[in-house]
Amino acid sequence: RLPRHRFVDEALSSHAYEDSALPIGHGQTLSQPYTVARMTEALLKPGLPESILEIGTGSGFQTAVLASLARRVYSVERIFALLESARKRLHALRLRNVRLHHGDGGLGWAAYAPYDAILVTAAPEGIPRALVNQLALGGCMVLPIGHGSEQVLVRVIRTEQGYRHEILEPVTFVPLLG
Ligand code: SAH
Predict the structure, then answer these.
(1) Once rounded to an integer, what is the mean pLDDT over residues 115-133?
(2) Are 82 and 63 in contact (CB under 8 A)?
(3) Is the backbone peptide bond immediately before 114 cis, with ω within 30 degrees of 0?
(4) H or E element, residue 138
(5) Interval 114-139 mean pLDDT
(6) Separation of alpha carbons 84 and 110, rounded Å
(7) Best of 57, 82, 87, 172 to mutate for ligand 1, by most ligand atoms within 8 A of CB?
(8) pLDDT at 148
């Protein structure tokens, strides 16, 4: 139901419905539809979250997918120009349950914590402590971890003692930068 061609440059719009990643400028990419679906599925498996924090807004496509599934979505992006383009697209699609923030997503977004779910779309080297701390008890975080060809998709569940995690599958993402 989501017009993916509206999230990429017009010159690329004829490729928008292929199952491939697409460049969105600034050296970043919109993930391939399979990956967006797989990450969303992994995130929602423990139950439908009320509030979701996304790290790495990029084009805003994954943000829009989440906004149609949860009551409130918060998303943090470090490249201001990408954030502002995403803001315009989400506004044009009348997705009003999204809040965007320009900053370092490795630190999360403390103002609206805790979140029922956190989705990270750029890869840190390990599980960021700040993000675990902003997860509600029993909440779920899905993120890629590692660098180069060594990345894996991981699901983290927040517990009273800290967290437990499971490795889902190999993936390739741009790095999470400070
Ligand atoms: N979910 C996006 C995928 C974009 S790629 C989409 O659907 O289009 C990952 C994004 O993470 C990039 O836009 C990159 O700028 C951003 N990113 C990388 N490090 C970050 C950080 N520390 N904080 C916030 N965003 C970050």
Answers:
(1) 97
(2) no
(3) yes
(4) strand 135-145
(5) 97
(6) 21
(7) 57
(8) 82
Going from the Cα of 24 to the center of ligand 1, the distance in angstroms, rounded, reads 11
Q: Which of 6, 40, 65, 79 has most ligand 1 atoms within 8 Å of its beta carbon, as the pocket-test mutant?
A: 79
pLDDT at residue 178 above 90? no
What spacing in Å lies between the alpha carbon of 47 and ligand 1's midpoint? Answer: 25
Scored b (16 or more CB within 10 A) or e, 91-121 reads eebebeebebbeeebbebbeeebbbbbbbbb
- Which atom of ligand 1 is closest in space to residue 104's alpha carbon? 23
Confidence grade of residue 149 (pLDDT, cut at 50, 70, 90)? confident
The answer to whether residue 170 scores a pLDDT higher than 90 is yes
Residues 6+ apart with CB under 8 A from 87: 60, 100
Query: Which atom belonging to ligand 1 lies closest to the Cα atom of 26?
Result: 15
Tokens 């990419």 belong to residue? 29
As a whole number of Å, the CA-based R_g of the chain is 15
Q: How confident is the model at residue 169 (pLDDT cuts 50, 70, 90)?
A: very high
The predicted structure's pLDDT at residue 46: 87
Neighbours of 27 (CB within 10 A): 8
Please write the tens of the pLDDT for every residue from 98-112: 999 999 999 999 999
